[in-house]
Amino acid sequence: xxxxxxxxxxxxxxxxxxxxxxxxxxxxxxxxxxxxxxxxxxxxxxxxxxxxxxxxxxxxxxxxxxxxxxxxxxxxxxxxxxxxxxxxxxxxxx
Length: 94
Known about the structure:
Elements: H1 2-22, E1 25-27, E2 36-38, E3 46-48, E4 57-59, H2 61-66
């Protein structure tokens, strides 16, 4: 019986790990994945969601702990990080 429980736990952990690798994000619970908050009085006006910065998605807890699906945004300036293929090599000058 204990062998079965250990094997079941191992299968569930591997399945969760695969799920985190394939889908590291979930819909933001604050804005329900829309990325916007609409006004109560003027319902056509909106602002970006403060919890997900208007992206509509948040990292899952396991993905955050394991470092999967890190955002490509630098936090202080909100600029997109360059791709690694755009970085100059040692022999090439910009």
